[in-house]
Amino acid sequence: MEALLPIITQVIAGAVGGNVASGALKQVAINAVARTIAGAIGGIGGGMLLSMVGGEAAMTGLIADGIGGLIGGGILSTIVGAVAARAR
């Protein structure tokens, strides 16, 4: 369970970040389920990227995972929404 906690944190934070970013940008090209999935995937990627760069040195593990998940989820969801809008 100890190994899954950072991944769960990243997935949840990414899903929240993806929905918030898409809502703030008023993207209607993708629905809420697609935003949540893209945000969750981006959250995992963002959390892993932040831990590779060394973001955990200044912050505790779960906080760094949450911040990386929020940022990564928001970025990937925004990219997916822009691509989907461009395709329509």
UniProtKB/TrEMBL annotation:
The chain crosses the membrane at residues 6-25, 32-54, 66-85. Keywords: Membrane, Transmembrane, Transmembrane helix. It comes from the Bacteria. This is Transmembrane protein.
